[in-house]
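Here we describe the complex-level prediction in full. Unlike the single-chain runs in Section 2.1, the two entities below were treated as one system.
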Amino acid sequence: MNAAEIKARIARILGKIIEAKGLPVPDIGDDTVLMGGSLGIDSLDLAELIVTMTEECRKDPFAAGLLEFRTVGELVKLYAD
Amino acid sequence: MRPIRPIAGKARPGSWADRPPDTEVFIEDDRPVTISGLQLMAGKIAAQLRRGKFFRCAVFSSRPSVLAAAILACEDAGRDLLVLKNQDPDDDSVARAAGADALIGDEMAVRAVKEPSAAPPSPRGEILIPTSGTSGVPKITRHSLSGLLGRVRSGKAGSGSVRWLLTYQPFGFAGLQMILTVLVTDSVLIGSGEPEVARLAGQALAHRVTHISGTPTMWRSLLMFLGDSAGELPLEQATLGGEVVDQAILDKIRALFPRAGISHIYASTEAGSLFSVKDGRAGFPAAWLEEPVDGVRLRVREGLLEVLSPRRMLGYLREPESPVTADGWLATGDRVVLRGDRVHFLGRADSVINVGGAKAAPEEVEAALLDVANVLDLRAYAVPNPVTGFLVGLDILAAAGGDEERIRKDIAAAAAAKLETYKRPRVVRFVGAIPRDPSGKKSRKP
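The structure predicted for the assembly as a whole is:
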């Protein structure tokens, strides 16, 4: 899966999570800060995103321990081949 | 061979002293075992134990009659009995580690354990039952037969029509309780081997069982499997135990069997059989925290139930540490909460899901969501992730024809209404079956 596909996937899952919270879904770009930014998601939402991505991509970038990521772009890199 | 007496020589009403020798006590795969047959089996084992001068006999069988015969033989000969589970027939290690010097299987031929432990134990006629040991090596609890029989009711002597369905593994604590029940009450136990729901449903119908005891998870799958034919069962008694019993399953059984007695039993391998609740409501009356029930005193310490029971185990066989508090109470490891006039079980302290430091009990999550329309059963479990440690995951077993998107929305709405944010399931999937542990309890594995 290339970076654009992964980004689209993240945007779709995030959109669902944010929608379920009853919040407006903003545009999601590489620089979008995942937590503490404009998205309005909390750590549980972020955890759901990671779990869903790990399952859908059949890849667990966190298997070897916690990696740093703050933005959508940084998360895309973790899942990109 | 001298005849084997009824348990402890006590001619309890309904015990076989009052029943004709050709009375059937077990039906295993449609093969009946009568009282005289059982006496022969027990006599054969007892004679071998005496002849071989064995002290502590390990039994491994998934036939209730073999387990019953071993119990009777050891009681008669004053030997200890170790009830093994999931034994490799060629592996003596568990038996040896527990100090057993003899082993019996389905053939009821007693053989010596290879290289038994050096110091022969002195038999006290105890029954040794390993805990289900979800993690690591099981501990072995020591029980007296009279303690195990403590809550077995004599029942209506002479009614002769009580037919129990065995939904538990026969060699586990709950299965052994069932076996002892038919030995001292006028009843027959139907089933053997690993409980498998399709077979159980078939046996229930074929033998028109009147009494069923099982975990809530087993009840749900059994009722699902029976479908409309559940109504054909002449059920007089529905008993639940082994897991937190929720209101939804009690209501469902009540609706299906309006004339049956419904009770849920609180018991564990360590604590023994403690009490049963018969008012059809989940949890137990808060008044029982003040007044002993069935000889058992109850108290809550830091959200956990502690008990003082005359029927508790005598102790562990090997482990020096014990779950007993400084003042002699047994810590059950079961989380409880007081709501109004009722104490409710929240689940096992060791099954709690740690969501970013907050504690979500899978049993509590399931109980809050089980009354959602078209949901037959649920399983909450821990989903690991690098952000919060764990999230709550939920497997849904939906009714045939249930609209998955609708159920998903209803589950989310019910969770939002009833559960704190961190307890709400974040990963939801639909499954064809809810996985169970061998003991019949819901599996908590991801």
